[in-house]
């Protein structure tokens, strides 16, 4: 089968590799019908040290169950399933708390241990806990939106939940990538009255407005902080969704939260230390968030997609075949595309 392998910064290849197969009795083998490239795949694309073995990329997918291990109970051959970016057993203490990204038997796709989903097929560990059967056909027009349940829609929703978005509140979304745009959808869906998007790419800002953003701040640094305060009676917002992960964006996120406000972080932090410790302290700003337990949110978000109430699939603005994956990485890295969908 074909798989997308990264060997170092800027070096992505589609290669023939040994077929994915069942290893554990709790595994499922899934033929990938739709996958995508993630903003977080761009970090190694920029910085990865050269590796002879390479890293098999991809952690978002929809596909058809081809085979299941002897202990799999809830899935059968032919099921169309969506795969969260982390696998989880669904039964441990953290899964029962809705924090599947901390599952004691869990892990992540596209790592050294578990191969990625930008491939013809993927082995899914802990299949019963991980996969969710979709009640549609694989050629359904909703497929791009359903694919975002793998990561970006659930991650944007997690930022909103961690940022305590609620009815009538003010919210700001830092970052206009696919997760930030889904964060706008999530903030609106949870009832935020004012939604300020911090970003500067015209096409993404236009989409953010369609998703429900009420204000746009394209400045950076201190100017951005001033602008958000100007838009909120000088106080800042109740809820900040931090969807970037750089020192500057984390600093801005804390500085634009109003006293007693909350920052929900989902941008993978690129530094060891968190900035703005003192402003967070003096303003009683709570900072939470982390790897989104997107598996926990699928049942809540799926009906809104099926009913057409939300359209997160619009962030997938380019579709390519698997062989074009290297160019898909380049296009996302060059900001020609917001997010790239792969149809193997
Ligand atoms: Zn678990």
Biggest pleated sheet: 7 strands, mixed
- Average pLDDT, to the nearest integer? 97
Rg is 20 Å
Distance between the termini: 11 Å
Bound molecules: zinc ion
- Count of alpha/pi helices: 12
Strand segment count: 18
Please characterize this protein's 3D structure.
It is built from 12 helices and 18 strands. Helices cover 29% and strands 26% of the residues. It is globular, with a radius of gyration of 20 Å. The longest helix has 13 residues, at 294-306. By secondary structure, the chain is of the alpha/beta class. Strands 3, 5, 6, 9, 10, 17 and 18 form a 7-stranded mixed β-sheet that branches. The structure holds zinc ion. The site of zinc ion has 9 residues, from helix 2. Zinc ion binds at residues 88-89, 92, 94-95, 103-106.
What does the secondary structure layout of this molecule look like, with pairings?
Blueprint: E1 2-8, E2 11-16, E3 28-36, H1 42-47, E4 55-56, E5 61-68, E6 80-83, E7 86-87, H2 93-96, E8 107-108, E9 121-124, H3 127-130, E10 132-133, H4 143-147, H5 152-162, E11 170-174, H6 178-189, E12 194-198, H7 202-211, E13 215-217, H8 221-230, E14 237-242, H9 247-255, E15 257-265, H10 277-282, E16 286-289, H11 294-306, E17 316-321, H12 325-333, E18 339-343
Parallel strand pairs: 11-12, 11-14, 12-13, 14-15, 15-16, 17-18
Antiparallel strand pairs: 1-2, 1-4, 3-5, 3-9, 3-18, 5-6, 6-10, 7-8
Helix pairs in contact: 5-6, 5-11, 6-7, 8-9
């Amino acid at each position: 089968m074909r798989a997308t392998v990264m060997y170092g910064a800027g070096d992505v290849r589609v290669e023939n590799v040994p077929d994915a197969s069942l290893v554990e009795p709790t595994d499922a083998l899934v033929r990938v019908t739709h996958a995508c490239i993630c903003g977080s795949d761009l970090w190694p694309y920029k910085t990865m040290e050269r590796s002879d073995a390479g890293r098999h990329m991809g952690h978002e997918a929809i596909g058809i169950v081809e085979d299941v291990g002897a202990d799999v109970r809830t899935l059968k051959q032919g099921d169309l399933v969506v795969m969260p970016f982390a696998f989880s057993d669904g039964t441990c203490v953290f899964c029962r708390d809705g924090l599947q990204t901390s599952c004691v038997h869990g892990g992540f796709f596209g790592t050294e241990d578990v191969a990625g989903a930008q491939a013809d097929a993927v082995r899914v560990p802990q299949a019963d806990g991980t996969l969710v059967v979709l009640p549609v056909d694989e050629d359904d027009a909703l497929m791009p939106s359903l694919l975002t349940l793998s990561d970006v829609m659930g991650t944007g929703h997690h930022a909103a939940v961690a940022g305590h978005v609620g009815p009538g509140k003010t919210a700001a979304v830092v970052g206009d990538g696919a997760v930030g745009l889904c964060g706008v959808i999530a903030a609106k869906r949870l009832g935020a009255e004012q939604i300020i998007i911090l970003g500067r790419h015209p096409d993404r800002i236009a989409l953010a407005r369609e998703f429900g953003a009420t204000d746009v701040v394209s400045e950076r640094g201190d100017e951005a902080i001033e602008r958000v305060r100007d838009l909120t009676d000088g106080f800042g917002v109740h809820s900040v969704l931090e969807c970037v992960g750089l020192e500057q964006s984390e600093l801005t996120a804390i500085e634009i939260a109003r006293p007693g406000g909350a920052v929900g972080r989902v941008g993978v932090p690129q530094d060891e230390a968190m900035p703005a410790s003192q402003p967070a302290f003096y303003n009683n700003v709570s900072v939470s968030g982390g790897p989104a337990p997107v598996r926990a949110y699928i049942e809540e978000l799926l009906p809104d997609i099926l009913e057409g109430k939300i359209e997160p699939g619009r962030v997938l603005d380019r579709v390519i075949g698997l062989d074009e994956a290297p160019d898909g990485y380049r296009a996302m890295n060059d900001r020609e595309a917001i997010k790239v969908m792969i149809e193997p």
